[in-house]
Amino acid sequence: MKQFRYILLFVLIILPFAVNASAEEVDYKAGYEKQMKECAETQKVIDGVVQWLKDHHYENYPHAKETVEDALDQSAYGEDAKKKAEALAAKGDWQKAYGWANQYWQYQVKVATQGLLAQKMVTDAEAAAQQK
Question: Rounded to whole angstroms, how far apart are CA atoms 75 and 88?
Answer without folding.
Answer: 20
